[in-house]
Amino acid sequence: MKEPSTGLARLTGRRVVVTGAGSGIGKATAMLFAREGASVAILDLNYESAQATAKETGGYAVQVDVSNEDSNAAAIEKAAQAMGGIDGVVNAAGIMIVGPLGEVPVSSWRRTLDVNLTGTYLTVRNCLPWLNQAPDGATIVNIASAAGLLPNAPGLTAYAASKGAVVNLGRALAAELAPLIRVNTVCPGMVNTPMADGFRANVGNYALKRLAEPEEIADVILFLSSLQSSYVTGATLAADGGRSFH
Ligand SMILES: NC(=O)c1ccc[n+]([C@@H]2O[C@H](COP(=O)([O-])OP(=O)(O)OC[C@H]3O[C@@H](n4cnc5c(N)ncnc54)[C@H](O)[C@@H]3O)[C@@H](O)[C@H]2O)c1
Q1: How far is the CA of 88 from the centre of ligand 1 (A)?
Q2: 208-244 residue pLDDT tens
Q3: How far is Cα 64 from Cα 19, in angstroms, rounded to an integer?
Q4: For residue 9, is it within any domain?
């Protein structure tokens, strides 16, 4: 068994797919992973932003709608061919549609579940043949949300339901894919990304009284994607400034 590394370059030789890497948490993760020695495939619905992240990381930009079976399968195949395999996945693509239960159309409920839950499921499923061949074991990190643990704000029924399901999906995957593949879930509180626009004031019930920078969430994702967490699987880690215990 390998000794956990302690210095920089904690992902040397690792080939990692990051979805939603055109923006926010996914982008910060791709940038950090590249600095830590990983090859990164930058998957996003928005191809222009994926290309911008790829330019900054030296990674491979791939356009994808994670919720679409054909698009997802084609994108994972492209990513695997570009990197010569896949050792890790970070599922950061996500959407949040906000509004009162009776006013948000059912189509928005379905789209939220499609992208956040089914998109995560499809990406893992399509990466599986590659992850099974990862020479030093593989990692999956899914980004859920503090709203998936404690949905205490109005207008977020679809989002909270999708993220609660992502939490439990992670546990089920961890049970099924062990011991070759470790699967963990990160539940951020509010993070300073485009998704948090309009919510930035709502941090009064956070113990730390501030939102997170995307780089602070990327650090948690790095821990769960590196050998420093070699004995951690099936875990749900709240990185939420104390929102869920407070
Ligand atoms: N920002 C927050 O406060 C916060 C809090 C908790 C959890 N999260 C979760 O973290 C993850 C990243 O969010 P973020 O804050 O970086 O948001 P963001 O909007 O900055 O980035 C999300 C990215 O996902 C991409 N995307 C959306 N739908 C897609 C699809 N169908 N296929 C492929 N890519 C798609 C977008 O183009 C965008 O680049 C999401 O799952 C989100 O739910 C965010």
Answers
A1: 18
A2: 999 999 999 999 999 999 999 999 999 999 999 999 8
A3: 9
A4: no
β-bridge mates for residue 236, sequence order: 185
Distance CA 87, CA 181 (A): 9
Cα 86 from chain centre: 15
The residue to which tokens 């879930």 are assigned: 185
Number of structural domains in the chain: 1
Where does ligand 1 bind, in terms of residues with CB under 6 Å?
19-20, 22-26, 44-46, 49, 64-67, 92-96, 115, 119, 143, 145, 188, 190-191, 193-196
- Look up the domain containing 147 and give its range: 15-239
Structure tokens at 87: 């050792």
Q: Which atom of ligand 1 is nearest to the CA of 49?
A: 39
Half-sphere CA count of 161, side-chain side, radius 13 A: 16
Identify whether 180 is part of a domain.
yes
Give me 46's structure tokens. 């928005």
In a domain, 8, yes or no: no
Find the 6 Cα to ligand 1 centroid distance in Å.
30
Q: If you take atom 43 of ligand 1, which residue's CA is the nearest one?
A: 94
Could you tell which of 45, 67, 159, 195 is best to mutate to test the pocket of ligand 1, judged by most ligand atoms within 8 Å of the CB?
A: 195
> Any idea what the CATH number is for the domain that residue 173 is in?
3.40.50.720
How many helical (H) and strand (E) elements, i.e. helices and strands, does the chain have? 7, 7
Centroid of ligand 1 to alpha carbon of 98 (angstroms): 14
Residues assigned a catalytic role = 159
pLDDT in tens, 174-217: 999 999 999 999 999 999 999 998 776 678 889 999 999 999 99
Domain-embedded: residue 245:
no
